[in-house]
Amino acid sequence: MKLRRTAHAAALAVVVAALSACGGSSEDAATSDAVSWDAAEPCSLADDATLAPLLTAGAGEGTATDSPERRACTWGKPEALNTVTVTTTSAPEPVDALRTIDVGGLEGRALAESKYQCILEVTTDAGTLSIESKFGLDATANPDTSCDRSVPLAEHALSQLKWA
C-alpha cells in the first residue's frame, strides 16, 4: 500500500512538472529567448539591405568596439562623415528625447536629430539598443533626413536580438 502511494505521488509530481513547463506564457518564452545586451554581437545586427539607405558609400565590413559598459559596431566611411554605429548597453542615456518614434511597437527615443545625424535609442528589459547615423554628404542631397530613416535598421536589430 505504501509503495502504491509513493508511485502515485511520483506520477503526480511528473504531471505537475509537465503542466508547469507547458503552461508558461509566450511572453515568458520571448523574454528567456532574448539576447542580453552584453552577449549581443552588434556586427551581426545589420546587413547590406538595412544599411544601404543610411550609407551613400557602401557599408563595407563592420568594425567592432567593445567596452565593459557597451558593445558596438560601426560601418561606413568616417572620413566622409557617413557612418552607422549599432550599440547595445545596459541602460538608456540619461537625456531627454527630442521626440518619440514607433519602432516595431516599441518606443524609440530620438536623442539627436538633424539632417546630419540621428541617435535613435530603444530600451527593453534585455538592454538598450542605440543606432547612431551620420549622414555625411547625403545630408546635402536629402535635407529632410531624420531619425525615421533609422527605424528599419532598429527594427531589424531588435528582431535579431529577440527584443521585439
Q: Separation of termini?
A: 53 Å
Oligomer: single chain
Shape: globular
Count of folded domains: 1
Strand order of the largest sheet: 1-2-3-7-6-5-4
Secondary structure: helix percent: 25-40%
CATH architecture: Sandwich
Number of strands: 7
- Helix and strand sequence: HHHEEEEEEEHH
For the biggest sheet, the summary is: 7 strands, antiparallel
Extract low-pLDDT stretches: 1-30
Rg over alpha carbons: 22 Å
Count up the helices.
Answer: 5
- The percent range for strand residues is 25-35%
Helix-and-strand structural type: alpha+beta
- Mean pLDDT across every amino acid position: 80
Q: What is the class in the CATH system? A: Mainly Beta
Topology overview:
Layout: H1 2-22, H2 26-33, H3 48-51, E1 63-67, E2 70-77, E3 82-89, E4 99-103, E5 106-113, E6 117-124, E7 127-135, H4 138-141, H5 151-161
Antiparallel strand pairs: 1-2, 2-3, 3-7, 4-5, 5-6, 6-7
Give me some keywords for this one:
164 residues, alpha+beta, Jelly Rolls, 7-stranded antiparallel sheet, 31% strand, globular, disordered N terminus
